[in-house]
Amino acid sequence: MTESSSDKLIEALRKAVSRTSMLAEGNDPKLDSVVRQIRQAITKGADANEIQDVLNAAEPLLIQSDEAQLSRAKQVRNCLQDLIELLEKQNTSSVPQNEKKQLEAQIRINWQVSSQWPHLLKGFLSLAEKTLVQTEHNPSKSSFLKRFFNRETQVITPKNDQEIMVQISHTLAGLTNNLMLPSHYDDDISDLNKALLGNNNLQQLPALLDEVINLIMVAIGKTQENLTNYLNQLNKQLASINESITSSYHSQKSLSESREGFNTKLQQQVTNTSQAVKGASDLDSLKALIDDRLSTISTTMSEYRTQMLRQEKHATQSITQLKNKVTRMEKDTASLRSLLQEKLAQAMTDSLTDLPNRTAYQDAILPLCKIMQKTQKPICLAVCDIDHFKKVNDTWGHLAGDKVLRLVPKQIRSILSKEDLMFRYGGEEFVIVFPELTLTQATERAEAIRLAVAKTPFNMQGEPVSISVSIGIAELIPQEEPESLFARADKQLYLAKESGRNKVMVNK
Ligand SMILES: Nc1nc2c(ncn2[C@@H]2O[C@H](COP(=O)(O)OP(=O)(O)OP(=O)(O)O)[C@@H](O)[C@H]2O)c(=O)[nH]1
């Protein structure tokens, strides 16, 4: 390998490793520190031995990470077993034994496979549902599960059922607490635990169980597992690249050693020849001596040439192998990047309505306002809130509330143009941005939205229900920050609510 091609390769490796390790950061503090050490060693140009030391030090941490995964798996298995036991304990309906056995078998086979955990929890939900079907055929048994799933017909939870439900909630809260997820999930876990522990309402339980499943699916089933696999893979690739660099270093070394050996041998042969020439007594013996020496020198040279050719071939093979390894690492980097982009898109989307969420709004609004200010075009913002939404939840239940939350933005979308942007800002509040519309035009569109929602016949358990929205609207003024634009529109929303709701109020 020539010096410049080996330098280029090592430089390419450094870049690839630095870039890939940066992508993998932020998921587990301990693995982060390993990744950082690897990157530092590579960036400061550490030699093969130093890099090997860092990789050796990384190994116990990767083993620890595996052990943590095993302990999480045990938590999940115990939780599922507890949930099945709780189902059996409630004495108003009997759990179908076939399904129960099937679920237990699945738990035995799959408890260590984190991507299967959501399926196992769903299996528990389905077992519970089957218990319900069974009791529907036997109406004399009034199951707590019947009320659990058939939320519309029962609102008050009897005391015995409440106790079982509280135990189920506590078991689930224990599970979410022990998942050991990355710290950016702390808020989600704490919200979910609060909801679980504070809940004594059977109606909320299936939705909460869904939340638990979502949390496991997003945090463990996909990202975490992929990244752990990726880091293990990265570790292996680094070790193998390290081996290739060490071996090409050795072959370079032995090449220069054999060159030195050849020089010494050649010099020795020349010295021997000149000494022999000095000592030669006649022309014939001098001729024979020189012939003999020349043939020795020629053998040495041809041996050297053969050795050189062999080593050059070996060096070419090493270069090809190294190139292939770099290409593989680049490919892995690209697939990890697309996985992270997918996660980012998920993080920007509200899962209930599929609308871009508040984070997406905050990312979009500043550049949008800047462009409009620069091009001197108008832009308006509307804050839209469903009226008396709490009453919808209280009267028809949380799932009916969710249905309204999905339907209202669909109505709104039917009025918007494709340039208008809608975000779920939080709860029952939506933000709509109207780029390039004047205040008058945006107000007309907001009024059309209000009318469309008010006219839509919503249906709750066969009963027609009127839903309306209140809207506050404002236009961006020169040099204004997006926060101030939002505050002015929000104030108008407040006034719309104050003056009786189902209104559009404009900041003029
Ligand atoms: N079903 C459901 N309810 C939600 C969701 N997010 C927030 N809520 C509920 O939305 C309700 C909002 O109620 P309030 O802020 O008191 O307002 P409101 O009842 O709409 O009354 P006004 O805004 O004054 O007309 C609360 O009961 C929240 O629990 C959700 O994702 N799904």
Automatic annotation (TrEMBL):
It catalyses: 2 GTP = 3',3'-c-di-GMP + 2 diphosphate. Gene3D superfamilies: 3.30.70.270. This is diguanylate cyclase. InterPro entries: DGCcoil, Diguanylate_Cyclase, GGDEF_dom, Nucleotide_cyclase, Rev_trsase/Diguanyl_cyclase. Its EC number is 2.7.7.65. Residues 377-508 form the GGDEF domain.
